[in-house]
From TrEMBL:
Pfam families: GvpL_GvpF. GO terms for cellular component: gas vesicle. The keyword Transport does not apply. Belongs to the gas vesicle GvpF/GvpL family. Keywords: Gas vesicle. This is Gas vesicle synthesis protein GvpL/GvpF. InterPro entries: GvpL/GvpF. GO terms for biological process: gas vesicle organization. It is found in: Gas vesicle.
Length: 207
């Protein structure tokens, strides 16, 4: 029996293309209910194993969807959402429609960018001054930002930014200038990603 693996939800019925998808699938397509559509690929389980390879495929497919037809806004799902039937998935789309509508409004035309700042060994970084400097540089460009975990002693700042697509180059330039000015930090700048950090939509059980 073929199940449906979900990458995210779009306001479209026609996202469809061939690609290297999760669990060896070679095509993604859309299952729609009224205004919204879930972009899916076929899979033989409702409990996929999160291998490094498939986690990367999940992210890569999301990027392809974001670039589909010039530009497509997608409410991304975390890895592992799979459903037994089109009917079950359409029921989920129906039940979560208000949440998808809010999320789509918040992220339409936007991308997520990540910024990690790691102190050089033996550097003495004033974290309060650093946070103020970073806020002054990047918050005016971003629509929103959120702090992420500091998972090592040398990681002094870890933030995700929601940025309008047409301001990405401006954000890139601001990061480059900051990096040029800070010899005491290693700058790790990532993205663009689908805006995982700025949506919180749960879509039902997979059983």
């Amino acid at each position: 029996m073929t199940n449906r693996y979900v990458y995210g939800v779009v306001e479209s019925a026609d996202v469809e293309f061939e690609t290297d998808a999760v669990a060896g699938a070679d095509r993604v397509y859309t299952i729609s209910h009224r205004r919204f559509g879930a972009v899916v690929s076929d899979i033989d389980t409702t409990d996929p194993e999160e291998t490094d390879e498939d986690a990367q495929r999940h992210d890569d497919v999301l990027r392809e969807i974001m670039e589909y037809d010039g530009e497509t806004t997608i409410v991304p799902m975390q890895f592992g959402m799979a459903f037994e039937s089109n009917r079950e998935l359409k029921n989920v789309l129906r039940g979560a429609r208000p949440a998808f509508r809010r999320a789509m409004r918040d992220i339409e035309g936007k991308i997520e960018l990540g910024l990690k700042l790691v102190s050089e060994e033996d550097a003495d970084v004033d974290r309060d001054a650093l946070e103020e400097d970073v806020a002054n540089r990047f918050e005016p460009i971003a629509a929103q930002s959120v702090a992420n975990d500091l998972f090592s002693d040398r990681l002094v700042l870890n933030r995700s930014y929601l940025v309008d697509r047409d301001r990405q180059a401006e954000f890139d330039d601001a990061v480059a200038q900051f990096e040029d000015e800070r010899d005491d930090l290693v700058v790790q700048y990532t993205g663009p990603f689908a805006p995982y950090s700025f949506v919180d939509v749960k879509i039902g059980a997979q059983q």
